[in-house]
Every structure is written in structure tokens, then in C-alpha cells.
Amino acid sequence: MDFLISSAYQIEGGWDADGKGPSIWDNFTHTPGNIKNDETGDIACDSYNKADEDLYLLRALRVNSYRFSLSWPRIFPDGRNRSINTYGVNYYNRLIDGLLAQNITPMVTLFHWDLPQALQDIGGWLNPEMVELFDSYADFCFHTFGDRVKFWITFNEPIAISSLGYDLAVFPPNYKDDPGYALYKVTHIILKAHARAYHTYDQKYRATQKGVVSLSLNMDWVEPEPLNDPRNVEAADRYLQFMGGWFAHPIFKNGDYPDAMKWKVGNRSELQKLPSSRLPVFTEEEKEYIRGTADVFCLNYYTAKLIKHKTTKLRPFSYEDDQEKVLENDSSWPTSAIDNMRAVPWGLRRLLNWIKEEYGNPPIYITENGVGLKSKSEVDDTSKIFFYKTHIDEVLKAYNLDGVNLKGYVAWSFLDSFEWLNGYEARFGLHQVDFEKPSRPRTPRTSAIYYSEIIRQNGIPFHQGDSLSLFHLLASRTS
Ligand code: BGC
């Protein structure tokens, strides 16, 4: 199954339209200096007003599914279900109905980072009340859209919330007050909120709606360098545990954090002479509640790095230091995107195999994979085609040769969109969007045509001039 994806804040615009409440990203981008060129998602691709055009483009691509996110403050302007905004609800109803009318399956993310500001005002993800509040939002969405939506993702990349929001503090809410603690507390609450929503679905909706629920985790592949030092191999495993296992181990294994994390954070906390580990502890009851709360494994993959072990000094407290590793780029790998990310297709195959081994061969959906180019005008985007071709090829190897239980692949992204701290600089879209024109015209890139060919042939198309396609032609003539 080939899908396409977007997220609410990155494409919708209409930031205060029809009674929508402000999100933490609205306020953050409205403060000068936070985003490259002070760009905002106020209008973005204007998808709030251009749903029909988006639907038309999706249909032209012949995707079977479209992953998008709901904006919590568009539905509940103050974050709570006493403030239902029917305009927002209707927008999503129209979008879902429009997709289904074209045989495109909606895959819906409940939370892609745009928290209602009113909930940040009560402490955001540090406040344990968020478990209840997220559940009541999720419950409303299952109830309202679940007759038609059968694939739910509770959180997109929760690590971005805890690590970028509460440790590196480059994303809102830029929380810097409790380094080395806050991010672990936030993840603890997010895991409970995810589990709570999963159980709500199980208890109230699964029997009639028959959908699946999961969360999307982003992981990089890391290659030990040099490979023959076992401490580097251990550092690589630790990295994967800190990045993906932090969420996946409790959910897909035993309800608890990975041993590598418990050991590292615990040990360092002891050396720091703290009374207990900075990594919070789940009760047995909580472990039982969290274990098994995902029906499929959803992975977002963008890049790979080289990794070495290191022993870090004890202060300042930080997530980075807790991992005791050094990450490097291999300069021979092509730079693919913004922020010096490297395109490493074989890393995806290795990562899929790691997930297969680690979590007992779960059904896997790749819920994001893509590349951001810096050139805005490039419609003939050969390098993006190369990225997709090489990555999908590795995915097919994982599926056909390694027995990875792969169920779907989602390309990031449908349109050029607001790329968080990078504003509109990085162009991930299969469609170019002209952000200088008020009507935000969309133009399909060559990669969009290529992707639709992949969908049509359910695999990588042969190039016209390929000797292989010539071979097929000859074979068909002689048979
Ligand atoms: C995020 C997207 C983002 C993409 C490219 C992913 O980690 O989920 O929102 O646009 O990365 O940077």
C-alpha cells in the first residue's frame, strides 16, 4: 500500500479561522526570531480552504491512502471538549468523506505537535492531567470520525515533543527549567496518555469500528564505527533504545523502559548523587496497562549516522549525555536535505530488520520517509526520485528477502509545507507549492509522476530504456 502524508499545522493555515483556538506553534511562530525568516504556518498551503484541490491532486496520484493529522485546537479551541468547534469538525468530515468518495483510505494522526495553547498554560505535557485531557479529545475523534477512519495514530514522533520541546528546548514550549528530568517526565505522561486512548478505543469502539491504533516513532539507523569495537556496537544499540525503545519497549515488550536506558540513566543519577534515577518508574499496574497498546508498528525514517561510544562528564544533566555516544556523519554518504541529513537507504533495511528482531516481527508501516530539497523552483526533481527509488528498493529487499512483515509505505510529503524551524526552506513535497502567491498554486513535480507510477505498478517501474524492460518486451513477443 502506498500512501501520502501531511500534518495539520504544516499545511492547513487558517490559524484563527472560524473559531480555531491558538496552538503552541501559532504563538511560537508569531514571536520573531524563532523560525527561519520569521515564517509562520498562518496560511501555509491554505489547505483549510483548498480541500477540494488537495483531493483532486491525491486522486490524480492514485494513492490508496492519505495520512493527515487533526488540529486539536481546531476541534477544541481551548483543548477541552466543552468547546467543540463545529466548523473544525465539519472541515475534517468533508475531508474524510472526500477521500472515501475517491477510494482513498484516511489514516489519521491525533497529535502532530500543535497543542492547544490553553493546555500549555496548565503545564502542557508535564501536567499529569494531560492523560485525561488527551483521552477525552481522542474519544471525541473516535466517536465522531471512527465510523469512517480505521487507522489511528495517537502521537506523531513523541520524542520530538520530549526531546526538542523539553530538553534541547528548540521547539515550543522551549522548556529549559528541569534539564535531564523534564523530558523523561513528559515521555512518562505521553506513554500513559497513549495507553489510555488505546484502551478507550478497545473498550468503546473497536468492536463496532474495527480499526487499528498505534503511534509513529521516528528512528535513525546508527552504524557502529569502527564496527570491531564491541563498545561501539553497544552504543549503537543504546542509541536505538533511547530513540525508539524509549516508547516501543514499554508498548511492544513489557510495559517498561529498555534495560539499557534504566541502567544508563540510573547509573549516572547515582554518580550524580541523586536520591533516585531521573528516569521515572512505572508501577506494575501501569506496566500492565501500557504493554500491548499498539496493533502495528509505525516507523518514520529519514537518515543514518555513524556512532562511537564515549564517557561523558556528569554535568549538565542531559539526555544527550545520558546516552554516552558520539554521532558523526559519513562524508561519503550523500547529503540529502536540510540540517546536513544524509540519505542512507540501506540504513532503512537494517533498521527494519532491527525492529523485526527486537519486537518479534510485528506488522510494520513506514509512516514517513522523504527528502527536503532546498531549491524551491525545482519541479524536475531527479534527486528526490533517486531518494524514493533507492529507499523503496531497500524496503522491498526487507520485505521480499528478509521477511520483514511490512504492510505499507508513506511518502513525506504530499505538498511542500511549513518545515518547523526551517520555515519554508526545505521542500519535501511531491508537489511544489508557490508560497509567494496568495492562491498557493500547487504543481506536481516529476517525483509525483514517478511515485504514481510506483503505485500503479506496485513496485519500482522499469525505465523505458532499460535493458530489462527490453528483455520483458522481447519475452512477451516470443511467448
Ligand atoms: C516530522 C514532519 C517533518 C519531517 C521532515 C518528521 O520528523 O514528523 O513533521 O516535516 O520530519 O523534517
Automatic annotation (TrEMBL):
The active site is at 368 (nucleophile). It comes from the Eukaryota. PROSITE patterns: GLYCOSYL_HYDROL_F1_1. The keyword Glycoprotein applies. Keywords: Glycoprotein, Glycosidase, Hydrolase. Pfam families: Glyco_hydro_1. GO terms for biological process: carbohydrate metabolic process. Gene3D superfamilies: Glycosidases. One of its GO terms (molecular function) is hydrolase activity, hydrolyzing O-glycosyl compounds. Belongs to the glycosyl hydrolase 1 family. Homodimer. This is Lactase. It comes from Anolis carolinensis. The lineage of its organism: Eukaryota, Metazoa, Chordata, Craniata, Vertebrata.
